[in-house]
Amino acid sequence: MTIEAISETCCFGGTMGFYRHTSESNHCDMRFSVFVPPAARDGKVPVVTFLSGLTCTEENFMVKSGAQRVAARLGLMLVSPDTSPRGEGVPDDPDEDYDFGLGAGFYVNATEAPWSKHYRMYDYVTNELRSVVFENFPGDAGRHGLTGHSMGGHGALIIGLRNPDRFRSLSAFAPICTTLHSPWGQKALSYYLGDDKSRWAEYDACEVARNVADNGAYSRILVDQGADDPWLAEQLKPELLQSACDSSGLPLELRRHDGYDHGYYFISTFIEDHLNFHADQLNT
């Protein structure tokens, strides 16, 4: 699969690059970013993919998180895709709001027109992006972890829980834990999937967690949540995820942090914990 390098630069002894390719899933050009650690000179390395949240692109995590320093030390490759399809002919929010359409793909496969042609981010992350990365970069496909923030935390949870054969470690920062009970999720899924809420369950992290028995695929799932997050009560609802995991036996570790909000200062504070967590899982 052919990719185009937009930019590449040295970073902590490795390479920080931004790339573009033509996506068969989303029928448009997609961008993604990759940090290749210096350890990759000696062979294939484990990979952690980070899914970003509303309004973000492939740049936000790599520019704001400070993750490359830690990833270089641990020998982890980092991958971060854009959050939605973009380009000529890709439909956007009809009301021009920030929480749907461009920058807000919600990591689902849309079934409703006009979204269904382009908005297939679930397939993109689960299948196509993996192929692009492992065909073009020195990553070990058998050691692949998944994490994300907010909308991307929702994406990481539903994709990771539904595909434990493809991902060996799973974490999230302040995820939207239930699209069925979040105004952000309700709006997005009503457009992407239609009004029949019975079709939404496969894209609701709590429903997926409740109905996926613990098969030992993940020895631990790490979720960090800021206690001063302004979206906590209305949009995120981590207590519902805890209840769902308790009912199915999934090994969730939900950590709440006083004083922290929803932004990248929160992510940058705890990114080292998450990368250490993934390194431990992927290297065992």
Considering the chains and any ligands shown, give keywords for the structure:
9 strands; alpha/beta; Rossmann fold; nine-stranded mixed β-sheet; 284 residues
The end-to-end distance, rounded to whole angstroms, is 30 Å
* CATH fold category name: Rossmann fold
Mean of residue pLDDT values = 96
User: Main beta sheet: strand number and arrangement?
Assistant: 9 strands, mixed
Helical amount: 25-40%
Count of distinct structural domains: 1
Order of H and E elements: EEEEHHEHEHEHHEHHEH
Radius of gyration: 17 Å
Annotation field: number of helices: 9
Silhouette:
globular
For the record, what is the CATH homologous superfamily label? Alpha/Beta hydrolase fold, catalytic domain
Percentage of residues in DSSP E strands? 15-25%
Q: Uncertain runs with pLDDT below 50, 5 residues or more?
A: none
Please give the CATH class.
Alpha Beta
Number of strands: 9
The CATH architecture can be given as 3-Layer(aba) Sandwich
| Structural class label | alpha/beta
Strand order of the largest sheet: 1-2-3-5-4-6-7-8-9
List the helices and strands and how they pair.
Elements: E1 4-11, E2 14-23, E3 28-36, E4 45-51, H1 60-64, H2 67-74, E5 77-81, H3 121-136, E6 139-148, H4 151-162, E7 169-173, H5 183-193, H6 205-211, E8 221-226, H7 232-236, H8 238-248, E9 252-257, H9 264-282
Parallel strand pairs: 4-5, 4-6, 6-7, 7-8, 8-9
Antiparallel strand pairs: 1-2, 2-3, 3-5
Task: Give me a quick take on this structure.
It is built from nine helices and nine strands.
